[in-house]
Structure formats: structure tokens, C-alpha cells
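Components:
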Amino acid sequence: MATSTLTPPSVDDAAPDGSRPARPRRTRSPLPFGLLLPAVLALGLALGYPLVRQVVLSLQEFGLAQQFGRPAEWVGLQNYRELVGDPYLWKVVLRSVLFCLVNAAVTMAVGVGLALLMQRMSKPVRLLVQSGLLLAWAMPVLAALTVWQWLFDSQYGVVNWLLTKAGGDYAGHSWLLEPLSFFLVASVIVVWMSVPFVAFTAYAALTQVPAELVEAAAMDGASPRQRLRHVVLPTVSPVLLVVGLLQVIWDLRVFTQIYVLQKAGGTTRDTNLLGTYIYRLGIGSGDFGTAAAVAVFMLALTVVLTAPYVRLMLRQEES
Amino acid sequence: MRNRKTLAIAAVTATALLGLSACGDDSEASPDAGPDKADIRVWLNGADTPQAARDWLKTTFEKDHPGSTLTIEEQQWEGLVERLTTALSSESETPDVVEVGNTQAPTFTEAGAFSDLSDQLGDLGGDDLLPGFVDGATVDGATYAVPYYAGSKYVFYRKDLLEAAGLEVPTTMAEFVDAAVALKKANPEPANFSGFWLPGQDWRNGVAFLWDAGGDLATEDGGAWTGSLSSPESIAGLETVQTLFQDASGAAKDGNEADPWTPYCNNEIGMMSAPGWVKGQIEDPEAGCPDMIEKTGVFALPGSDGSPAPVLLGGSDIAVSAKSPNQALAQDAVALMLSDDYQTILAENGLTPAKTSLATLLGDDEYAAATIAAASNAKLTPAASGWAKVEGARVLEDLFVDLAKGGDPAELAQAADEQMDAQLG
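Structure:
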């Protein structure tokens, strides 16, 4: 799941002119490999062990009793077979993918929009916006969620109070009762939490766009929209790709926000995403084997969803 | 260059994390009684245990065991099964003594999460301990948890509001439902006023109506448990619940039953079913509203035949974590919590003591009478080993929220039965 740590933004690695002088072949020193070894070992341990453990678990009948030391029984692909035959899993998968794509898209749009806006702001205003973003980013998730929960509380929430004051009939309206409205609230929170990262990264990338390039385009008669589309965005696209990739990964495995909102209201079964589904199966109902199988499935889904991105990124690095 | 640097940073971070987790594992537990001195961690849930009892436990334990300390860590009832599942299975993270809901205990006892207390059972109270609780925590003749307190919910009501609406204290189930609806009608303001306060997720109160109608959550046939929410009797009970949700309750249709004193003190409740210790919260000047107590009356929820309705037998067990390295000290803490002194404090705060001989300590006021009446016909959740899984998957919370939303009881019950069958099977 930590694909994120493995795909660092490498904007400027490509040789500027694309051609490389032929180097004379020399006997390779083993030093670089020796230097890489500790990192690879640590990664192998930190990522490999849980991964192997998870796959093993998904092939076992592993319940609460096994958690406390009873030997586990091998069941082969039984857990997977049961899952694939369960229409509920597919519902959760569809829900998760939709939620992930919508949220990642909205986050990217708002984040990049803010970054472009920041370029145009006067310094004091920009500082104000940046401090606001930084605070939203630095807020501990649970603290933020408690506040959001209170805002949307059906009995005493300020959102209902304001809407009622404004003439709507929102007294006692429950925002979490209907799944669609539940996911709307969840999306607001998720987007609010991830926009600062996108905005800051995009803004940093935008400051690297050569001013003379934009100026030249302007002198050639390109409209602001054309300059954005054909000059600015292509220049920062490697960064946007990486950030977009991270957003997709994060929004697919979203957990805390959904989990906390489910406790506050709504119907658990109608609002489970992959993350909370795995949790309910494993830690909630003590069926760790099936939960691990769903987790393996989710890993595969992440790879499938992000593969086009990664391919695109690799191609950009090569060119 | 950048690639390699990131890798290196990742490697350093990973190594640091590995180092950290390695630190946690050095407390190799000896299988015997454990050290003489240690910090004993006790998990108590919710605000149920009064502060006086906590203080007494800490001071007494630390006086009896110089050099040792006792720390009480308060847990939320909400999500307790999940937390116990993770905490109890880790030798380094486990609390030493845990409070667990009486309906949740069987799942953990069968999984082997608790230490065998059979040898201590005599000293802890033996036959004097509440029998239903001991049975629930006994597997193959060995007892893994002892009762902590019992307490079934009874109805708190506003005398002034009932009088203003021209209503008498109901004596049968039908009268109760009518009174709840009438009370809501008589108080159109505020809009979220409840004749009977019933948040959507509150199946623990709702199940009384199902049982009263002759239904059940699950039934056993030849050792196998299956859901029985869709039996005609259960559906009749669920229909009563739906009536209450729609015509009597102003609580959030997807809310949970935590902190009932907040809306109660806010003049939003005519009647509510709550555990006895909630009285203490209403009397609390900070959390509650002491003035309201003189307008408050209580009665046990009446059943269809006029005797108390079968409400959920609430209460807690205490147990020693099997993975705790401090078995002897933990057992001493359990002994203190079952001592007459400690149980007296609980009784004075409206909790039914764990020993039947101490029941008279509850007193003889209205509250004690309601406590005893409510317990007289109380029932437990199904004794299936998979029951905590049903609770963990929130099957019943979902069912009741859907009922509150106005779904068809028969269809919803059918679907919930199918889910329960999977959890129980």
C-alpha cells in the first residue's frame, strides 16, 4: 500500500537534450549495490512481511480464537471464492471506486485552482490563505472530524440551524441518514483535508514555470486560457500526475472519516467502503481470514486503478 | 539522485519504525503469577462506574500493594468489541483487568482471551454472585469472568409533562405506547421533542418490544443458532418499535443512545429508557440538571400483561486478560472490585451489586423499586458464541435505523436474519 513512498516526484531527472554521450564500459563497482542493500532490506521487512502475512492470512480460516493462539486451518482459496460470490463485495467495490474517483477529481480541481489563484494574490492575502491551508492540513484527523460531526449534528448542529434560519426546513434533518447525503458530507471532509497538500505542491511547481516561456507565449498572441493549457499545465504535469496518483491511492483506502461518521449516524451496511468493510469483517466480526482476502483484493484494485498513471509517469521520465 | 535519496529516507524511517516496535516486545511474560510490583491497568467503560468507586479502588489497591500502582483507563462502550479484540491479543499492549458487557463476554471467553478464574471464584463470592452472569462466562466448567454489576434499563419520565397532558403512569404496553404518542402530540415545541426518546441505533432498548410481543433475536435448534427476527411475533414487536420511532420519538433517526441526559436536561424528552446510573448524571451539576430531578419519576417498562416487560439484562463482567504478565496483581484488583466496600459504592449509585446478598443496599425508594422490577423479567441476548460478531457488524443498529427511516419491517427483518445467520453459523 506504500506505493506512495516508492514513486518520488522526479521532474528534472531526464537529460535536458535527450542525447547521451557513449561511455566507455568499465567494470562495475559493487559499491552502489552495497549502499542500496540496507534500504532494500528495510523496505522488504517493513512492506514485505505484512504483505506476506496478509496473503497467508487470506488463505486461512482465522478467527478470534486463532488470534488468541489456537492453530489456524488452511482453507486454500475458500475465502476468495466466498467473496467473489457475494454481491455485497461488488457493491462496496463500486461504491469505493466511485467515491475515490469523485473525491480525487474534486480535490485536484480545487487544489490546482487555489494554486493558480495564489499566484495572482498579493503577498498578505497569499500568506493568509497559506496559513489557513496549513492549519487545515495540520489539524489532527479525529479533532477535525469531531468538529465536522458537530457542525452537521442533526439536533444541535450549526449547519441545520443556519439553513433553518435562512428559511429552509432543516430542523432535526439528519445528514447521514441517506447514503448519498452521507457521502456528500464525507466528501466535503475528505476534500477539505486533502486540498492543502495539492494546493501547496501545485503552487510550488507553478513557481518553477519559467516566466520567459509564458511571456514569449503571450507575445506570440496566446490568450491566458491557451497559455494555461499549452504552456503552464504541460510544464507542471509531472508533478500533477504524481499528486493525482497519491490522491487516488489515499481516497481509495479512506477509512477514518467514514468510520467516525458511521458511528455518528447513517446505516453502516449502506455506507461501507473497502476500508471500513475490511475493518468490520476483521476486527469487528473477528473474521480475519476473509478480511485479509478483501485486503488483497483491494491491493489488486489499487494497482489496476493506478497502473495507467504509473505508465504515463514512466513514459514522461523516459522522454 | 532524487530517487535514491527518497529510498534512503524511506529506509531510515522504516528502520526507525522497526526499532520502535521492537522496543515494545521485551516484556517477556512468565506464565506464572508475574512480578510483585507493577502498574496495573484497568479498563472501565463509559461513565457507569462512579468517581467515588474509582478513587476507592486506586487508593486501596496502592495501599495494599506498596510499590505498585493502579491506573483506570476509561473506554467508550461504543466500539468496545473491536478495541478488546486488538488490545487483548497483544502481550505488550493488553490491559490487565477489563470490564466487558455481559453479552459480549461469551465471545471472548470462548476465544481464550481471559484467564481462568475458577480457583478464585469461591473467594470472590461463589454462589452469591449473580448466577446468570457467571453462567454466561463459563465454558466447559471453567469460569473466565465474574459479574461486576447488573442494571436493566427502566423508564425515566417527566411528572409535570405527563400531568399537563392529562396522562397517567402507564401500566401496560399498549398504554405505554399510547402515552408516548400522546405526549409527543401534546408538546409540538420543540420539534425534536420525544414522547418516548428512541434514537435510531438503540436496539438495546428496542429489543424489549420484540420480546414482549413474543419474538426473539435468534433461536437455537440442535446447537445451531439462526436469526428469528422475521417470525410473525418478532415482526409485530418491530412494528411497535416503528410506531414509537415515527409517532413518539424526536431523537435522531440514526443517532445512538449515548448521553441521554443532554436532551433530557434540554426539555426535549417526556419519557426515556435508561440505566439507573443516569440518575447520577442528571443530578451532576456539570453534566446534568439537578433541578430536574424533583420533576422526574421512574417506572419499569410495563409488558402487555401488566407485569414488567422483558427488557435487556444489562450489566458488566470483569475479567483478567490472559496475556497480562501481572496475573496475581490483576486478580487482587478484581477481588477489590468485588469486595463489599466497593460494591456498596456501586449500589449507592443505582447499580445492582454483583452479589445477591448486597441487593438490599439499593435502598427502598422509587428508583430501587424500578431497578428491582425491571430486573425481575430481564432477558439476555442469545447465548451464541458468535453473538459479539453480530454486534461487531452492527446488524441490529442498521435494522433499527432502517425501521426509523420507515422501511418495511418484514422485509428488513428478513434481510437482517440472513446477515445474522452468516455471523452465527
